[in-house]
Amino acid sequence: MLFTFVMANVAMIGLCSKVESGFPSWTAPQPNPKLPLGGYKKLQQHFRAEVLHGIKQSLPHSDAGPIGTYNHNVMFDYLLDDGFFLMWKNSMADEDSNGQRMLYSRSVDGRNWSVPNVFLPNLTTLSLALTLEPGPCIHIRGRMYCGASPGFHNTSHDSSAQGSQFCLWPDPLDPRNCGPPSKVEVHYNHSLLVREVRHGGSLGPMFWGAPDVPKAFQAATAAFHIPALPDMDAQTQEDFRQLAARFDAGETPCDPEKDGTLKCEACAGGCQIYDSIPFSLNMANERTHWLLPGKGGKEDIIAYRSSKTHKLWASKRTGHQQAAWSPVVETNIPNDQSNLNAGTLPDGRVYLVHNPVTPVSSGGDSVNGHNPSARDPVTIATSRDGLIFDEVGVALTCTDLSSTSRCLPRFPGHAKNPGPSYPQALTVVHPAPKELQGLYVASSNNKEDIWMTKVALDDAPVTAFV
User: What's the topology of domain 25-455?
Assistant: First the structure.
């Protein structure tokens, strides 16, 4: 079978924990934090590539100015007949600090990347300090749009990470709710800032993916001359009209036969509205979506990170109605309170890419190796039915990256978790060139550097432990 996983001697911990019927579960061995890589074996890779090495200085041939040492939260996609587009949030040193912006890089083959440049700028003005949070890209009518949402909070440390990052489509379109239950005053609706990613390396202009300019961001709108959707060209307006119409009709715009990718961060008819989730569950905004195989596209799952436990939580539905989502329940899928991403493999299986290993260390800060939120490795787990994840292997680990991008941050900074985290994955398929087809995984490392790997989809044996 393609993409076979080989397991190390992993302690069978917690395999008998009760999971509610019909929800995702983990029957693969639970991770053992006392073993290297939690006890899991590494998957074969076609290559590993460093997209960005975080530095304080500027880079030649880049208009981004000083790059900064905080680089995290990647989003990436594939544009047919052009290549890969990868963006991430960036600041000089600290997570979610005022002025956080979006950088990007492009690649024809996934191995060789362009010098990073600015995708969405620092929108801070004299009247309001802002930070940007990324969301997934979306394909419509052969074009691809990517974006982010600004946010702010009236403290020295911006709390916009509570905002609309990871907004599954069509959540960014009014009146969807993009934020988790929160007592923090942030601004979600009408705040999706979008650009078209065009062929040949060019980008479209920034615009608000909404009929009006968000009231909270009028100063930034004026300073950067950002139009609302009605002031964009006719093609863009029609793309977004069709986006909304397809979702309202219980469809998604995802079309692998035309787009060359199985990545689809969209819920037909609407994803679960956060307001239906009790605040007491401490549900985070990190979430992912997948369809259950063999159900005709009418049964799907959303999995959530919660700061309440080290397990994923999940909701399910049958049909395409937003109101059909069930209450969220706790699963037994391990998670180091980090981000997650899911999708489909060419053989129909569902993959889940995330950080399942919770370290045993405690105390200390993020630059001495004793952070309780250290994150390593990034794994890929698979499920034949989209519910039972029974095979798992390591996609990325800080133990075998470059000599200068290992398992500790090089620079101090707020929330600099050691190790690779917040992964995203992408399956490239026909009609993309055969040499590009396969499964790609990207993540930050130490929240400083950006890495990508292509994982082998074959029966070759995995390598031994480091």
Answer: Neuraminidase (2.120.10)
